[in-house]
Please model this.
Amino acid sequence: MRWSRAFIPTLREDPADAEAANHRLLVRGGFIRRLMAGSWSMLPLGMRVTKKVQDIIREEIDAIGGQEMLLPVVHPGEIWKKTGRWDDVEGILVKLKDRRDTDMLLAMTHEEIFTTIAAELTSYRQLPQLWYHLQTKFRDEPRPKGGLLRVREFTMKDSYSFDIDPAGLDVQFQRHYEAYQKIFARLGLDAIPVHASSGWMGGKESVEFMVEGAAGEDEIAFCPACRYAANTEKATSAIPAVADAPWEGEPQRFPTPGIRTIAALAAVGEFAAGERQIKSLVYVIDGSPVLLLVRGDHELMEQKLVDGLGTWDAHPADDDDIVAALGAHPGSLGAVGAKGIRIIADPALRGRTNMVTGANDDDWHLRGVDVARDIAVDTWLDLRLVKAGEGCPTCGKPLEVKRAIEVGHIFKLGTKFSEALGAAVLDEQGEQRVIWMGSYGIGIGRNMATVVEASHDQKGIVWPVAIAPYEVVVTAVKVDDAASMEVAEQVYAGLTAAGVEVILDDRDERPGVKFADAELIGIPYRVTVGPKGMAAGVVEVVRRRDGAVEKLAPDAVVTHLAAVVARERGRARG
Model:
């Protein structure tokens, strides 16, 4: 490819609304353009990177037995109603009707449709199966941001495994785990596998692959000592036991006029420090008010509540609901003597005595509360958000909390979808057995963006050879200098013949413009051919990653670079 004929619309300035590095650099480098919020067009450079990411994914999924398909992006609503997700993912699921007034939707994932195909399987002899595709998805994200990190329309590789029993699912899950590690390594990403919430996907176990990065929207708890890692939606930790001061008799009311927060109450006196308080929160769950209790200095992790109760119908109650349920406003709430309301408490409160909580009477609190004696807890459930410095649940050493970007997620779905959609086979005894399923996803654009987040500098993107839009750029410093242009053409032709992906910058532009563009779009190697070098009998080879410069004879550069590129390709494959 000649740069003069390529569509590479580089920009000198950052987009005004760009915060994430991938947003700034992919737009400036001419890889992508935004159509509307959360919707991006892939330009030629973007497509070259995208295809390479897809090829790496295909190679590794094919290697574990994957069979590629392509399923529709518009689905009949009836299938999603059978699995319950027509209503469960309300808000981000885009629904529509066709001319026959039939409910339809835009696919946000494809579990239902792959399962309808699996329903054609009849015998255990046809299992296991592993199917996948690379297809467009649409999720109506309320706040798309971060360039390609959080979008509405995107391409995802989603694969699905089908087995006769849980043991078979475990095997396929482990194979995907290993394949994903290879994929991310080939993309140049240091991805950390973490325990994760399965969310609206369902199932009992899932693993996210996370790359540390400031642009990430997730937080992970990580132990440097033993490598324990979990999304904070799932993470647990060990916290020191609290020695409670003795208290004789029943809880005692005391006035707290105008006090509505944990911090304000803690300022009243030592007896009301955050760790000595019970924080009371009212949620409406499946249409009914529920009282949630956590320690005063702890925060509620809502995803743990949702996962623990197995429902998505959960949201904070409004003031009217709270007063109706408990007779007081937020800031004066408590579970002592509460009637007709379910009480769910975090285990950090188990066995605690001499605690302080609201009295369910505005401007009054209670002290001397014994949790076991005074509060009728219905359910003990881990509700607490883990904090940095707390003990690792595995080894006890301090945890770190890191911001991270999710680059992949694998799920053990179990039989949720196969039961709902009738996917079953006959086993060796002729008995019908419901198929066990797994689901495994990787977002293509998100991984492209994450590579940029992890690998860039002040000049632009630093692509690894494995997914760079071009591996080498041959930059002709002066296109009107016949001798240097002849050498540039020879190097370009030689690299092309050697199988190196190369672009010849033959534009009639100042050298500084050409160098800046090559660095901005992140081509791993630049061959600079100019009159000064020709006079000395050399061309320059500049490595983008660290700026290292080599001066080589023109007739040696092709062999040298072909070997370097081949070596880096091989290293990426492991």
Q: What stands out?
A: The chain has three domains: 19-69+107-212+404-453, 252-296+303-375, 461-573. The longest strand covers residues 400-414. The first helix runs from residue 21 to 28.
